[in-house]
Amino acid sequence: xxxxxxxxxxxxxxxxxxxxxxxxxxxxxxxxxxxxxxxxxxxxxxxxxxxxxxxxxxxxxxxxxxxxxxxxxxxxxxxxxxxxxxxxxxxxxxxxxxxxxxxxxxxxxxxxxxxxxxxxxxxxxxxxxxxxxxxxxxxxxxxxxxxxxxxxxxxxxxxxxxxxxxxxxxxxxxxxxxxxxxxxxxxxxxxxxxxxxxxxxxxxxxxxxxxxxxxxxxxxxxxxxxxxxxxxxxxxxxxxxxxxxxxxxxxxxxxxxxxxxxxxxxxxxxxxxxxxxxxxxxxxxxxxxxxxxxxxxxxxxxxxxxxxxxxxxxxxxxxxxxxxxxxxxxxxxxxxxxxxxxxxxxxxxxxxxxxxxxxxxxxxxxxxxxxxxxxxxxxxxxxxxxxxxxxxxxxxxxxxxxxxxxxxxxxxxxxxxxxxxxxxxxxxxxxxxxxxxxxxxxxxxxxxxxxxxxxxxxxxxxxxxxxxxxxxxxxxxxxxxxxxxxxxxxxxxxxxxxxxxxxxxxxxxxxxxxxxxxxxxxx
Amino acid sequence: xxxxxxxxxxxxxxxxxxxxxxxxxxxxxxxxxxxxxxxxxxxxxxxxxxxxxxxxxxxxxxxxxxxxxxxxxxxxxxxxxxxxxxxxxxxxxxxxxxxxxxxxxxxxxxxxxxxxxxxxxxxxxxxxxxxxxxxxxxxxxxxxxxxxxxxxxxxxxxxxxxxxxxxxxxxxxxxxxxxxxxxxxxxxxxxxxxxxxxxxxxxxxxxxxxxxxxxxxxxxxxxxxxxxxxxxxxxxxxxxxxxxxxxxxxxxxxxxxxxxxxxxxxxxxxxxxxxxxxxxxxxxxxxxxxxxxxxxxxxxxxxxxxxxxxxxxxxxxxxxxxxxxxxxxxxxxxxxxxxxxxxxxxxxxxxxxxxxxxxxxxxxxxxxxxxxxxxxxxxxxxxxxxxxxxxxxxxxxxxxxxxxxxxxxxxxxxxxxxxxxxxxxxxxxxxxxxxxxxxxxxxxxxxxxxxxxxxxxxxxxxxxxxxxxxxxxxxxxxxxxxxxxxxxxxxxxxxxxxxxxxxxxxxxxxxxxxxxxxxxxxx
Lengths: 523, 523
Prior knowledge:
homodimer, alpha/beta, 13 helices, five-stranded mixed beta sheet, Aldehyde Dehydrogenase, Chain A, domain 1, 2 domains, seven-stranded mixed beta sheet, Aldehyde Dehydrogenase, Chain A, domain 2, globular
């Protein structure tokens, strides 16, 4: 049941006077529930409760944390239709997408449950002492990963489930042993509260300390700012815009005790289509890419916003075909009027730059909050000279850059800011001839794709969802997959510690039966 | 041979007009060589050369990188007596220490050589595709660690070899495939240049690209500032003071593209001595700790600057014994008059705080630049109330805090800033009774030691040399041991990439025979 209140641990609380509602972009009306923005006192209480919970939660066994994570998944599924309907009413996204995203969220939670139940993720490393070593004895040293402390998670507007309240950041943090305080996304506050209730219920059922999770409502930036500044907060996870992520990074860096911020932010996901591929299957590629550009109304961080090709008749044809394909698709609704407005304004900015040609723009009548998809094209030199053309237009928009030659193509790629993904579309054995282009692209991205589309982020250990700034604030981590737990842990070393007082992970007898590295060898 | 010039790759360069000399604290005179501070143009050239070298170096095989690292070790040893004499004349440290530190440096280089020659450090992770999976095909994804790009390394005043020019940061970065630009420490510029010449020679002998290493002289902060701001620099390693490290962290955070800074900074390394231990072997502990406090004139980042005990007659006796032991030791010289001055001034600051009692201070006649060791003591409440008492006094100084009870002890530990180490000194089965104290301590440190001294940092995979801020700027990494390579790499993912074009680490046939995780299982 949606109450509009904050969860401070297991307590529902609504002490504030600032209220807001979520919005249904399809009906173009507000949804019914009123949400109470968290007050300064509520924020402080939630963080202090998390810090207190941490003293217990950090020692909770992997088995018990797994039970907690699995219970969250169960409770989310138990929310059933209420969750799906709330999700749809707060996003305009279809039921199929809601259920798919729920499945992904549940899968992520269960993956982390499996990871921590098994236990080897702590990377236990043991070097036995050599008491009679000369000139000095070698101490016994044993290292494992331990949790950082309370984590603040900012959910994404475009993934109310998989990258929000109980999404990847939260699942990874709880798995690590870190309490989580979610700054609820105002566009899907109802979905957020429902998921929060599932987490709180799961925590109670599995005996987790109160405060292991809190959910704070917020319609502006103040709640987030106060959270990131709070001395008891030890790290931040964020998915959203470059401006938002950078603001949090700056705040965290200015603290007396700076803390890590992992923000997954904007990306235009360059796609290079090589000549052979375009001549072999230009029409098919145009169709595929029209689909990828408009998927989910273009509201994916892996949306292909930039397509790079070498000038040729075939490229000209491809651009025409892409234009035709994309105008033939039915427009769809955006998540929120604000997002729709930003889309239209960013699109206008892009098209008003010098020498930008509109290839195709959907011009028929359209419902409120629906997005008119668009493809534009520019010359390579124009793109190189104008950094404004490198900016993301969040929505069903893409820009085709016509490069003079491979050398210019390489320079353009090298000039790009960091990206989540890069894609190479090539004909048989064509890729070998563009090694410099591939190398330049690799240097700018977190994931490189061959003959596919960047949309679709598989949840598996080999996935990197991140990349050089501003794709993320720290390219050394991924936001997706079990290794995303590394964002929230630190290595810790015990020297000559009594064996019986070591955590089980490091005891001589290895009671958990985990994989460990002993004296440099995997055991 | 020392020339006083900068190494811009393999080229010796001295275009600047700012010059300086190093200083021999024992003779209290300047050393002979004149060093030329790098100019803006030289800095820019060095970084651009590093960026160019990176395009080649990042693809150099593990075997060839190992040959390079081993060649550096060989060339350092070949410098022989010139290196040792220069080291001693620039630090006042004895020959035995110089040779010991050289051994450590060579060991670190060879450890990284072994690591990259073997190759499994890239953490290759493969998830095979499932083309017929419903509702969507599962792509083939393969992930491994790749280097970040050019790294700037700031050496430490107190470790001219092991934490400077070819020290841990440099060895780890080169092993990762990152070119290195060293901002030479002005106090040991001659030692730095000699080691730089060894690296350059090794790079030439093993066919590494020019620019894989540069060494820039600098007597002030400008060279470092320009380096950290340079857009082609991708990360920073630093060992030194909190003020210096924080300044670099702030600079890096304010860049258009923020970059990671790993700074290993100050620490007072709290040592808790429990009642049973003090009553069993107080005299022995006093002797041991007098030695640890004065080791290397107290110029170790793991120096025990804070000793915590529970008020008792035994503690009073221990404090007296510690005072007696420490005054019985011969004072030794500090690294530089500036460091000596800072020591005297910080010590004065500490002793002038209210209710600080001097237990023992060496008062006999003393040579210039030698440090008068000191032990002081305060009440627990005094320490809790005055954050100035928490500040590091770099040198042979320690403060004994007399706590009223275990609860106050725990509160004091919780109030400390982050530390590199924490030590528990306990009698038989005594530790079990102080679980809360141990937990509080664990929360503030990177390494916890039982019945030992914090000085002495073993180089092995299980070592954590780092810890919560300000012990380091990012507790998720260590500065010592092979895992310190993780600071300079990022995970990178290939999706559906042609097998023959994948790096060897990810090819189906596993030509390098490295350990990999395939479909979630170690293979």
